[in-house]
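Cross-check.
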Amino acid sequence: MISGATLVAGVAGAPVAHSLSPAIHNAWIAKAGLDAVYVAFSPPAERFEAFARGLRGGVIRGLNITAPFKAAALGVADRASDRARRAGAANLLVFDPDGRIRADNTDGEGLLAAFAQQAPDFDPAAGPTVILGAGGAACGAAAALLSAGAPEIRIVSRSEDRGHALAEALGARARRMEWGDSAALAGAGAVINATPVAPDIALEGLADGAVAMDMVYRPVGTPFLRRSASRGLRTVDGLAMLIGQAAPSFEALFGRPPPGLDVRAVALATLGEA
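Predicted model, tokenized:
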């Protein structure tokens, strides 16, 4: 039962009704027996910064942040982790009792956890990785892969300005390439879709044994992953990444690691794919 002592956290995005984060976090909350609840917020895009700043020092413990607010979330923070600064985006805001807002980015941690689980022999340092898109999720993924030793990150984006801006922010080991450039995938060890749609990109240039990952998780077996599997590529799904980034978020929000629970089964049931 929700009471005056109940801890409140949530996820903010626009749209956000599709998010599986409430199902995942509330399952962990119930298993751990916490007096807490995790809910979804969808502030108007032009009001996000005022919305987030208005929660400082209040009853909300913190927020996970999803599209389109990840870059703006970093801007409202008083303090930011190194990985959030490197990514130029935040997917987690924690509201401290003293009124300060802390920003972090667990997207990269979630992505690496997903690869470790579903493609355990993937070595980021073995060759280039291609990231399709240049939004907040792409930022977190690219920063984590560079920290893991990736020799080159190729940002393939339809937006020239955003792609160049991300590549410049990431440094010398990142470059932006055109969406239709046939050389973009040449010799790459992995290609990651960080856009909300199925990418219309040829897969023939990828190295044998390469990995395809899709951050989209509705459905879990996306058209991009099905096409990649038919090409003989190993695949990593977005649900594994979602759970991977949720675990450190839960600990930051509620002060303890998530309890032992098969939340993938919970998420699949919520999706109707159990």
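DSSP finds ten helices and twelve strands in the chain. Residues 108-236 form a domain with the Rossmann fold fold (CATH 3.40.50.720). Passed to J.P. for a second look.
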